Amino acid sequence: MTLLVISPDYASHLLPLATLATAWRDAGERVVVATGPATAPIVTSFGYERTDLSLGRNSNAGVIQPEDDALRGFFAATRRGLVETLLHQARARRSDLLWDPVGRAHAVLKAVEEVKPDRIIVDHLAFSARLGLTAFDVPHADVVLGHPSALPVGGEVYGYPTDWPAAFDPSPMALARLHQVCRDVRDAFTQEWNAALRVLSPSAKPSDDALAAHGAPLLLNYPEALHDPARTTLLPPHAFLGSAVRTETVPADIATWLDADDRPLVYVSFGSFLSARGDVLAKVLVGLRSLDVRVAVATGSARALPALPDTWLARTHLPQTALLARAALAVTHGGNNSVTEALTSGVPMLVLPFSTDQFAGAASVEASGTGAALDPNKVTPIAIADAVRELLAGSSPAVTAELGEQLRAKPGPLLARAALI
């Protein structure tokens, strides 16, 4: 049996998809990954074959450096808050999500013809790839790697948050403006999707909302226990995978550091992208200095951070899943990989969401009792320290530990393979 994995050229997308594919690899089956060149080393590290497929203008094999104008504009928007950030992302979506749709569709078909897979899994956000598979009637499993709200259901509009934590209080007028922009982008995107679909398959049925289109089966890289049951009833046929947590090797020096101190470990990371908000990361680190904890921080592209205690571990990049396995608490931006990896390790979270589905994810963490959420633009070091202290002393560690046991008992890769058999 051959499994074809189709992923954008981004580490944060490929890593969970590659992890899901380990169920096929470990069963002795062939796995081929269609992605761009930047993430080729990740494909190799999993022992998979690779076929070249670029699905967008950009790529990210690790930590993004926020140097170009588009990224500067995004980070400036995050400083203005929830609505301004989502407005910025909605407007950028006109050109980001459906790059070269006809050309990419034919490239995907070529990859399918060359690999001759028995099963295909594709990133839900790889819209050009899914358009091609849909147009050419190629069966495929659609994997939503982010919070399930990345697939709109009911009356939802893509890009408009389904929920947000109590620490955020956007004005009704601002939210109305955001909702209108998201509707306009949805309509423009759907027109572009349908135009490309007519070229690829003139007899195909056009979409009413291309941002809500999906393949089957639908696989959700998220714990069902954190998803609103009322929203679950609106989903098309689906399977919750819980999480796709990769196995990482701990370097000897980090293993020594882990064993040298028995104080509670707080793991801090804003991911490969939002680590650029070094101003917020600095407030987190100052707040943690007042507590009797030790800290491991993945600094990413952050600059001008405060001096740290000698007993702390600070690196540009750290083996996140390995450190979470030893952590008492995680401070995170709320990206879905970080959230699901922390939950699988039974680690409660303090979430500081900046963009996209991080707001809905943080609200779910808050509502489930697996952590707390604060506004990164308003938070102070004192508030950080107070929140960490309360989380460690409260019920969140027990709640999250129980959920972690459930997730580890049913690993996402095995659930994904079972859904495709």
From TrEMBL:
Domain of life from the UniProt record: Bacteria
Keyword entries, A-Z: Transferase
Alphabetized Pfam families for the sequence: UDPGT (PF00201)
GO molecular function: UDP-glycosyltransferase activity
Gene Ontology biological process terms, A to Z: antibiotic biosynthetic process
PANTHER family xref list: STEROL 3-BETA-GLUCOSYLTRANSFERASE, STEROL 3-BETA-GLUCOSYLTRANSFERASE UGT80A2
The protein's name in its UniProt record: UDP-glucuronosyl/UDP-glucosyltransferase
Taxonomic path: Bacteria, Bacillati, Actinomycetota, Actinomycetes, Micromonosporales
